[in-house]
Every structure is written in structure tokens, then in C-alpha cells.
């Protein structure tokens, strides 16, 4: 895989599964290529359809092949997993860009817990 800089915009989410018993979720996204180097959006209170419009930058190394998106419901002192999505970086390397909705499959992939709109731009070094 090529090395370079990956700019990621977490635009919005839609139809995110509710994890709270009372009220709606307060969703945020953790994104990473390697688990020890995560970045995250702010939590958006009380919604299934959050709008983040937050931009993140990652230095991509040759061993990086996937970007992960873990969506959580923020709770006091805790977080509940809503869903996990991922995109193979080869989809971004081909055109230099990616603009699509990333599904958040449930455990075993039997259903979907919503999706997030992600825009990515890759600049090789």
C-alpha cells in the first residue's frame, strides 16, 4: 500500500440504532487504522441522525490497509457500541477519493445498526 496523508470527513449518520433505554443515543465515532492511534468526533446529544462535519488527518503507512469506524453511544463514564464499519484503503487509493455511506453491521452481520457518511481524500507522499 502507498504511504501518504489521508484526510477523512465524518459528515453525518443516519438511522443509528438506539442504545439508551430512555431518550435517544448521543453518538460519536472513533476512527483508526491502528488501535493504538484513534481519533474521535464529539458526541451529538439525543439523535439517531447526527451531523458531525468533522475533519481528521491520518498519516498512512505501507502496512495500513483498512480504516475502521466504531460508532458509540456516549453515556456518563461509559460508552455503548452502536456498530462498527470499515473501508479497505484500496478503495481510496484507486481514485484518491471516497465519498459514500458506510454501513454499521450488527454482530454476525445479520442486520444493520445504521450508517455514516464518510468522505476521504488521499495524497501520496
TrEMBL record:
Keywords: Calcium, Metal-binding. Pfam families: C2. Residues 1-102 form the C2 domain. GO terms for cellular component: membrane. Transmembrane segments: none annotated. It comes from the Eukaryota. CDD domains: C2. GO terms for molecular function: calcium ion binding. The keyword Calcium applies. This is C2 domain-containing protein. It comes from Rotaria sordida.
Amino acid at each position: 500500500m502507498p504511504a501518504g496523508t489521508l484526510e477523512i470527513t465524518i459528515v453525518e449518520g443516519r438511522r443509528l440504532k438506539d442504545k439508551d433505554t430512555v431518550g435517544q443515543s448521543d453518538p460519536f465515532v472513533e476512527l483508526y487504522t491502528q488501535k493504538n492511534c484513534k481519533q474521535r468526533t464529539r458526541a451529538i446529544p439525543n439523535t439517531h441522525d447526527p451531523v458531525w462535519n468533522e475533519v481528521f488527518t491520518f498519516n498512512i503507512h505501507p502496512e495500513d490497509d483498512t480504516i475502521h469506524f466504531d460508532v458509540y453511544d456516549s453515556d456518563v463514564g461509559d460508552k455503548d457500541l452502536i456498530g462498527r464499519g470499515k473501508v479497505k484503503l484500496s478503495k481510496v487509493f484507486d481514485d484518491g477519493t471516497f465519498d459514500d455511506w458506510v454501513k454499521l453491521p450488527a454482530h454476525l452481520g445479520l442486520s444493520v445498526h445504521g450508517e455514516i457518511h464518510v468522505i476521504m481524500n488521499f495524497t501520496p507522499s
